[in-house]
C-alpha cells in the first residue's frame, strides 16, 4: 500500500497489531480506516459511504448514530462513571439491567453475572460449571461438549469451546476436557438421500454416543449457538434442537445457549432460543446488548446452576471470580437504553419483517455461479461460494472466492464479511426493506464479477 508518511494508514501499519488479521499481509495492504457512522452507514477516511451490512461484528442493532445511547452514556458518566460490584457493592444501572434481563428471559432464570466480552462470559461459564460440579461433590463432572464450527470466543477456555481450526492452531488449544461434536450444517454434512430430520436424528445419536463413551457423569454441559454465526451462519436442520435437548434431558446435562449473536432480535425473535424452543440453563449475551457502543456481556443462569454455586461461595467465603468492570455502570446504562429502543421501536418485529424479505430475495442468488448455498434466518444470512457445485469443493485455495466477493461488495459500497468462502450478511436491525434491497442488488452485480475471474 502506498501511504503518506505519518498518515493514519502508515501509523496503523507501524504501531497496531490487529485481531484476526494476517500481520505480514497487513504491512502490504494496510488498514481500511473508518471515520464515522450514521444509521446503517459508515464512512471511511476518504469520505466513501458504505452500508455496514455486518453491523460491525454482528452487533450494532440500533445503527451508528443513536443519540439516545450517547446521552445515556453522558448522563451516567456525569453521575457515577465507575463503580464495581465486588464484595456486596452495587449500583443502579447494574441492578436495573440484571432485573430487565431476567424479565426478558424466555425461560425462568435466577441471576445475571456481568463480564466485558463474550469470550470472558464463556470463560466464566466454564468456571461456573467446574465450581458447581465441585460444589455438588462431583469433581469428575468437568467436560463440556461443544460443536465443530461453533464460535464461543478466543480466550483459553472460550477458544477451546470454539470449534474452528484457526482458533486452535499454534495456540495449543483446545484444552483437554472440551469435546466437539458434529456441525449441524445440512447442505455440507448431510448424506446422500438423507432428510433434514434424519440428519438431525443422526447428530443427536452422535451426541448420545459421545456422552455414553465419555461417561454421562463426566459431562458438565453442552454449549451451542441457536444459529451458528462466525462458523459460517449455520441454521439448524428441522428438529435439531428438540432432538439435542431430549438427549441432554435424559442425562440431566445442562444446556448453554450462546446468544451473543442471536440475542436481542437478530433472528426475528428476541432470543434465538425462542425461535427453536430451546430451554437453556445458561444464556450468554453480548454484542447487541449494548449495540456494541460499549463492551459488555452477561451470563444468565437458572436456579439449578446458581444454587449449588451460592452454597460453595458460602463454604469458601467468597466467589473468587469477577472483573474490575463487571456490570460497568456506563455500559449498563447504555445497554438499558439500547434495549428500551429495541422494544419501543419494534426492532425485533422489524427484523422479522425485513429479514423475511431479505432472505427471500437472497435465495434468488442460489442459481448464480459460483453460489453453492444461500442460508439464514431473520437478519442473519450467508452466501457460500464453491468452485464445483457437485463436489462443493473450493475454487483454488479455500477462501479465494469469499475474499473476491467481499472485495466486489465493498466496491459496490456494501461491507460484508468473508468467513472462508462464505460471505456473511448481518445488517443492523434498523435496516429498512429498501436498504436490504440495496444489499441484495449489490450481490446481483458483484457475484458475476467474481464468476468472471474464475476461468
Ligand atoms: N460467542 C459468540 C456466539 C460470538 O459470536 C462471539 C464473538 O463473535 C463470542 C462468543 C465472543 O465474543 P467477544 O468477541 O466479545 O469475546
Automatic annotation (TrEMBL):
One of its GO terms (biological process) is biotin biosynthetic process. Belongs to the class-III pyridoxal-phosphate-dependent aminotransferase family. GO terms for molecular function: adenosylmethionine-8-amino-7-oxononanoate transaminase activity; pyridoxal phosphate binding. Its cofactor is pyridoxal 5'-phosphate. It holds the Pfam family Aminotran_3. Keywords: Aminotransferase, Pyridoxal phosphate, Transferase. The keyword Disulfide bond does not apply. This is Aspartate aminotransferase family protein. SUPFAM superfamilies: PLP-dependent transferases. PANTHER family: ADENOSYLMETHIONINE-8-AMINO-7-OXONONANOATE AMINOTRANSFERASE.
Amino acid at each position: 500500500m502506498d501511504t503518506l508518511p505519518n498518515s493514519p494508514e502508515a501509523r496503523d501499519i507501524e504501531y497496531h497489531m490487529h485481531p484476526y488479521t494476517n500481520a505480514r499481509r497487513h504491512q502490504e495492504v494496510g488498514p481500511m480506516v473508518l471515520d464515522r457512522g450514521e444509521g446503517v452507514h459508515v464512512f471511511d477516511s476518504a469520505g466513501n459511504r458504505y452500508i455496514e451490512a455486518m453491523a460491525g461484528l454482528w452487533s450494532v442493532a440500533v445503527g451508528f448514530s443513536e443519540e439516545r445511547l450517547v446521552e445515556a452514556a453522558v448522563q451516567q458518566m456525569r453521575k457515577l462513571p465507575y463503580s464495581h460490584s465486588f464484595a456486596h457493592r452495587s449500583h443502579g444501572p447494574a441492578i436495573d439491567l440484571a432485573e430487565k434481563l431476567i424479565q426478558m428471559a424466555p425461560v425462568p432464570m435466577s441471576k445475571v453475572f456481568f463480564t466485558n466480552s463474550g469470550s470472558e462470559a464463556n470463560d466464566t461459564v466454564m468456571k461456573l460449571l467446574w465450581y458447581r460440579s465441585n460444589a455438588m461433590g462431583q469433581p469428575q463432572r468437568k467436560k463440556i461438549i461443544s460443536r465443530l464450527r461453533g464460535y464461543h470466543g478466543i480466550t483459553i477456555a472460550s477458544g477451546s469451546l470454539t470449534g474452528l481450526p484457526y482458533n486452535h492452531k499454534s495456540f495449543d488449544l483446545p484444552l483437554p476436557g472440551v469435546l466437539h461434536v458434529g456441525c449441524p450444517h445440512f447442505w455440507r454434512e448431510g448424506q446422500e438421500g438423507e432428510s433434514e430430520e434424519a440428519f438431525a436424528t443422526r447428530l443427536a445419536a452422535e451426541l448420545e454416543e459421545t456422552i455414553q463413551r465419555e461417561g454421562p457423569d463426566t459431562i458438565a454441559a453442552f454449549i451451542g449457538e441457536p444459529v451458528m454465526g462466525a462458523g459460517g451462519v449455520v441454521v439448524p436442520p428441522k428438529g435439531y434442537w428438540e432432538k439435542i435437548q431430549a438427549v441432554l434431558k435424559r442425562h440431566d446435562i445442562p444446556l448453554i445457549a450462546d446468544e451473543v449473536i442471536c440475542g436481542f432480535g437478530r433472528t426475528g425473535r428476541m432470543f434465538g432460543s425462542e425461535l427453536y424452543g430451546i430451554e437453556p440453563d445458561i444464556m450468554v449475551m453480548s454484542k447487541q446488548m449494548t449495540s456494541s457502543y460499549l463492551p459488555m456481556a452477561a451470563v444468565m443462569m437458572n436456579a439449578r446452576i446458581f444454587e449449588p454455586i451460592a452454597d460453595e461461595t458460602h463454604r469458601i467465603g467468597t466467589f473468587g471470580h469477577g472483573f474490575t468492570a463487571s456490570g460497568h455502570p456506563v455500559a449498563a446504562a447504555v445497554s438499558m437504553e439500547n434495549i428500551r429502543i429495541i422494544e419501543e421501536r419494534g426492532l425485533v418485529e422489524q427484523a422479522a419483517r425485513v429479514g423475511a424479505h431479505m432472505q427471500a430475495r437472497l435465495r434468488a442468488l442460489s442459481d448464480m455461479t459460483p453460489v453453492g448455498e444461500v442460508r439464514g434466518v431473520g437478519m442473519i444470512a450467508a452466501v457460500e461460494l464453491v468452485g464445483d457445485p457437485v463436489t462443493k469443493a473450493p475454487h483454488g485455495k479455500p477462501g479465494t472466492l469469499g475474499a473476491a466477493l467481499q472485495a466486489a461488495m465493498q466496491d459496490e459500497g456494501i461491507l460484508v464479511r468473508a468467513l472462508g468462502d462464505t460471505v456473511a450478511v448481518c445488517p443492523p436491525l434498523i435496516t429498512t426493506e429498501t436498504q436490504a434491497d440495496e444489499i441484495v442488488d449489490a450481490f446481483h452485480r458483484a457475484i458475476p464479477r467474481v464468476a468472471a475471474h474464475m476461468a
